[in-house]
Inverse folding.
C-alpha cells in the first residue's frame, strides 16, 4: 500500500519560505499569485493491506513524528 | 558555589559538546559526555545539557529525530522528577520537539543562517539558570542558527509571560526589542512551567572569554552552581 502524508504550516503561522517564493514569483511577472505555502510530502510504502488499520497507523506516525502539531497540520492520502 | 556533575549529551551531528565541556569545566564543574544510545544518565547527574549542532542533519525538522534517541527517555524521566535540563540551540529545538519545553522553532523569517554576536535582554532571573544575571540587563552572546524562529500561540504565551517563563529576548545595544529571526515577542529563550527545563538559541558556552568577543556566558552558566 502506498500512502502520502502532506505536512504544512498551520493557517496563521507565517511561512517564511512560502513568502520568499511568492515574492520571487512576483519578480518573475507572475502577478496573479495571492499566496504561497510550502509543505513537505512524505511518501510511504506500507505492508498493511487493511485500509482502516493503515489509516490509524499513519495518523499515529503523523502525530508522533512526521508533523509537529504545535505549528503544522497534515493530511493523509492512501493512493494505492 | 556547588560543584556540579554535568552530563552533556552527544547525538550524531552534535558539534558543540566540547565547547560545552570546556565552559562547564572552566566554571569548576565535572562533566561527562553521554552518547545518545545510552539508556541511563550517570547517577550523579546534577544538570543535563543538550548542546548545539545539527543532530541527524536537521532532517525532517531540527531536533525531531534526536528526540526519539534512547537517552531522551532517560532525560524525560530525569526532568519529570525535577532534574535540571538546559538545551542550547539544537538542544533547545530537541527539547521543544520532546515537549519538555512549550512551543516550536521554525525557519528564520529571512531564511538565512544567522551567525553573529547578538544583544539579549534578561527577562526573568527568578530561576536556577539566570539567577546571577540582573533583570533587564543586556548581554552579548553569539547566535548561530537557521531555525530559531520561536512560535507558540498567543494564549499559551500570555500564560508563560505571567508565570515568568520567558528568559531572554533579542534586543539592540540599548535593550530595545529587536527582530532577529521572527520569534514571537522576540523570544530567545524560555523555561517550562516548573522552571527546571531551560532552552535558548544563543550560545553562552561560546561567550566565556573576552578575547573571543564576550564573557557574558560565564554569568549565565554559573547560575546553576548557585541555585
Amino acid at each position: 500500500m502506498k500512502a502520502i502524508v502532506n505536512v504544512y504550516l498551520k493557517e496563521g503561522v507565517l511561512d517564511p519560505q512560502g513568502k520568499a517564493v511568492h515574492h520571487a514569483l512576483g519578480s518573475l511577472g507572475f502577478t496573479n499569485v495571492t499566496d504561497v505555502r510550502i509543505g513537505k510530502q512524505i511518501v510511504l510504502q506500507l505492508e498493511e493491506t487493511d485500509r482502516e488499520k493503515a489509516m490509524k497507523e499513519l495518523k499515529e506516525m503523523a502525530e508522533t513524528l512526521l508533523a509537529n502539531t504545535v505549528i503544522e497540520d497534515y493530511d493523509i492520502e492512501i493512493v494505492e | 558555589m556547588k560543584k556540579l556533575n554535568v552530563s552533556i549529551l552527544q547525538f550524531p551531528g552534535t558539534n558543540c559538546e566540547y565547547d560545552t565541556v570546556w565552559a562547564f569545566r572552566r566554571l569548576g564543574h565535572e562533566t561527562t559526555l553521554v552518547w545518545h544510545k545510552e539508556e541511563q544518565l550517570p547517577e550523579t547527574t546534577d544538570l543535563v545539557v543538550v548542546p548545539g549542532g545539527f543532530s541527524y542533519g536537521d532532517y525532517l525538522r531540527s531536533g525531531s529525530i534526536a528526540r526519539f534517541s534512547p537517552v531522551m527517555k532517560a532525560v524525560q524521566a530525569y526532568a519529570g522528577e525535577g532534574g535540571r535540563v538546559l538545551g542550547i540551540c539544537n538542544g533547545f529545538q530537541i527539547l521543544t520537539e520532546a515537549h519538555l519545553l512549550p512551543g516550536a522553532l521554525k525557519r528564520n523569517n529571512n531564511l538565512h543562517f544567522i551567525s553573529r554576536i547578538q544583544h539579549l535582554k534578561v527577562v526573568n532571573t527568578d530561576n536556577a539558570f539566570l539567577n546571577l544575571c540582573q533583570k533587564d540587563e543586556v548581554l552579548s552572546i553569539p547566535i548561530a542558527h537557521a531555525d530559531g524562529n520561536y512560535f507558540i500561540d498567543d494564549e499559551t504565551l500570555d500564560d508563560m509571560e505571567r508565570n515568568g517563563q520567558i528568559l531572554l529576548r533579542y534586543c539592540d545595544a540599548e535593550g530595545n526589542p529587536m527582530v532577529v529571526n521572527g520569534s514571537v515577542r522576540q523570544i530567545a529563550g524560555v523555561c517550562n512551567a516548573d522552571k527546571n527545563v531551560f532552552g535558548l538559541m544563543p550560545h553562552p558556552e561560546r561567550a566565556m572569554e573576552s578575547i573571543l568577543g564576550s564573557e557574558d556566558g560565564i554569568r549565565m552558566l554559573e547560575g546553576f552552581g548557585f541555585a
Summary: Chain A has one domain: 2-78. Chain A has two helices and three strands. Chain A has a mean pLDDT of 95.
